[in-house]
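Complex 488.
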Amino acid sequence: MAISNNREPKIATGPCGYVLEDVPHLVDYIPDLPTYPNPLQDNPSYSVVKQYFVNVDDTVAQKIVVHKDSPRGTHFRRSGPRQKVYFESNEVHACIVTCGGLCPGLNTVIREIVCGLNHMYGVKRILGIEGGYRGFYARNTIPLTPKVVNDIHKRGGTILRTSRGRHDTSKIVDSIQDRGINQIYVLGGDGTQKGASVIFEEVRRRGLKVVVAGIPNTIDNDIPVIDRSFGFDTAVEEAQRAINAAHVEAEGFENGIGFVKLMGRYSGFIAMYATLASRDVDCCLIPESPFYLEGPGGLYEYIERRLKENGHVVIVIAEGAGQELLSEGMNQQDASGNKLLQDVGLWLSQNIKDHFSKQRKMTINLKYIDPTYMIRAIPSNASDNVYCTLLAHSAIHGAMAGYTGFAVGPVNGRHAYIPFHRVTERLNRVVITDRMWARLLSSTNQPSFWDLNKVEAKKKEETKEETEGQLIVGENHTEATSASRPKE
Ligand SMILES: Nc1ncnc2c1ncn2[C@@H]1O[C@H](COP(=O)(O)OP(=O)(O)OP(=O)(O)O)[C@@H](O)[C@H]1O
Ligand SMILES: O=P(O)(O)OC[C@H]1O[C@](O)(CO)[C@@H](O)[C@@H]1O
Ligand SMILES: [Mg+2]
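Predicted structure with magnesium ion bound:
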């Protein structure tokens, strides 16, 4: 197997089109590091596990639906404990930082990193960095012990607090060096993982024995490659409460319209899954599927038809949907450079009211529900909690084994170490030519708002991307439902 030079992405190839997109390792730039037996082999809880250590050559396939003659395709290194580790327990000085938007499960991952490092590897020195990346040089640190974090998974938010906005990578790495930190666990969305990748590059440039491990999170589920991001399941569950309320209100009045706006900046996964789960929704609008209001096949016509047929309508809209319909362009950004969106929920609900009262002379009763932060400011549900444990343990095992510059996450149900660039190079978005969106259309009976020619063109575009290795079709599946948890 040939391995390319270590500054470039580490790609190894094998027979039958096998490709391993590997993650960096400390020995790539610090040769001759000593290794130690993994202390887990003496841990009574883990010693009973048959074949507890993962074979170093185990990899996880990105594409599992294959044909007889198809190449084996891209693989990622399987996560899990290794027989040899590159840190002695008393040598480890770890830190944890949370950045970007809040997400259910952040406290669980913090807890599980602290407890996992302590209980599995005997690590005692763990610091919490306060307030996101800038906290490395602008805030005090918080010593974290199993006792301090014992109950935090029952609370929403992050005990470390978070932030958006610019930071100075060089100052962060100075602070890491000054404090003698050698394992950094970074929790956050796409922007955070980009930041972690730059920190890793600087650490490598300085030749430091410091591991940088990313644990991606976002309720939007917009991180590619991994099956789903933690917090998403909880957010979808909480969104049900808003949809239920909208349905009750809509049913309770003549020509009732329940209108719910959910988060989802560029990706409509929350809206799509909340709609599919609820079965009370008549129309789901997401950023990936443009729609129009007036005329045949438009939204107004559909609403009117549903009101006549059913007496009420429930609409769910993702915050990023239909932005192109809003007249005034808004070019503002948040502190991190993310485009600030216009409030499509308020805009569209007002337009629907105006259309029916002024143009159609119909009395409608529209109730607008915008749960915004309520779906992400809550503690994670049971399934996300278990998922968070697996993510934290994967990250710890990878760090102890000397891997670095990686993000963790399940790929087709198996946890893997994924190079940063693969989780940051694009956003995971709903594929509207995939079967999951078709299921949604069939469950709501809403129009697709697309003409057939456009659908055909889109299908061709996505088939092309798939054959070029981007695996577009099928990514709508956030497979890890409560019924089938990802396995480590
Ligand atoms: N391209 C980038 N390069 C380096 N650092 C970045 C980059 N983009 C964002 N960051 C850093 O990551 C942190 C969080 O970014 P951001 O606010 O975009 O949230 P996020 O991690 O994408 O989470 P969310 O999904 O909630 O938006 C910020 O402090 C920012 O400095
Ligand atoms: O108001 P904030 O904290 O910038 O976050 C809002 C954004 O964060 C997200 O929840 C992603 O974390 C998006 O869905 C939403 O647009
Ligand atoms: Mg982001």
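The radius of gyration is 24 Å.
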